[in-house]
Amino acid sequence: MILHFMPSPRLHGAMDHIRKAVAIVACTGLWLLGIAPAHAAETIGISFAYYDPLSLVLKEKGFLQEAVGTGVQVRWILSQGSNKALEYLRSNSIQFGQTSGSAALLGRTNGTPVQVIATTALSEWTALVVRRDEKLSGLADLKGKRVAVTPGTDPNIFLLRALATVGLGAGDIVVVPLQHPLGRQALDSGQVDAWAGLDPFMAEAQLQNHDHLLYRNRSLVSPGTLLVREDFEAAHPEIVRQVLHAYARARSWAIANPASVAQILGQATGLSLDIAKLQLSRIDFAGEAVGPEQRASILAAAPILKSSGKITTGADIDKAAATLVNTKFTTELGLD
Q1: What CATH number has the domain bearing residue 140?
Q2: What pTM, to 2 d.p., does this model score?
Q3: CA-CA distance, 336 to 134, in Å (whole number)?
Q4: Do the beta carbons of residue 304 and residue 157 sit within 8 Å?
Q5: d(CA 139, CA 47)
Q6: Which domain holds residue 52?
Q7: What domain count does the chain have?
């Protein structure tokens, strides 16, 4: 069952920053409609996301603009979730975007022309969250309960995989589809019983409301990935290399400057430094290359996706899985 939720006027933490970012995005209306400027090669669109702190470093420090040079304008668009990044990639509003590996697999299966060209991080960025006064004690107790989740994202796929471990499926709960920050709001207000959370909002819920993580399982969380549109990659391989170099620089800087990363994350989201630090404590800024372990983690989502009803009729997830990861550039550049 699916319920639809009408949010109250009160929004938490980073919502003010989201509104401001969305207002900026609205000013780039042609890009959101997928209408590129006349000289598309001179402008690239890339998302930034609170769930991907490296993208915030990339933007704040100017590493990407430096990498592509003054002849290429970088346009930044806020992604509130993997579903939004895929939406922007599909419409050609952006050419590079950050999503979870599992969401990338779902997106490519359903026709979004993207490939994974790098990992951004290995993160425990999702878990199933309940209020501190909630009497649920385990996954089996979710049967018949209202669960907020953002469709097409890693928290959504994590929820399905978690339920399957106790013999439950989406039909055994009441799904309330909401974008991540609104899911947290619905949990706070008691309009749902649980929430498939996402950092930084999950960290905010823990520290501000002392909400409880009902179920954690890092092995069911797919890695963060950087995607590129296939047509852009074919037409502008040098820019792809420059973007990967910039990401590698941001990664090295982030590893060397954790306190500064926390400050950038806190300033971008409008959340406290403690919340930023909690989110970062769950992130491993692993190497760029998509190795066998990362690939296996991504493809592990395929079985649950096949049975989820989320795949477009006639789509071939096995074919998509076989062509999802492109290691050409990280291999050429010698990135680990």
Answers
A1: 3.40.190.10
A2: 0.88
A3: 44
A4: yes
A5: 34
A6: 15-122+223-333
A7: 2
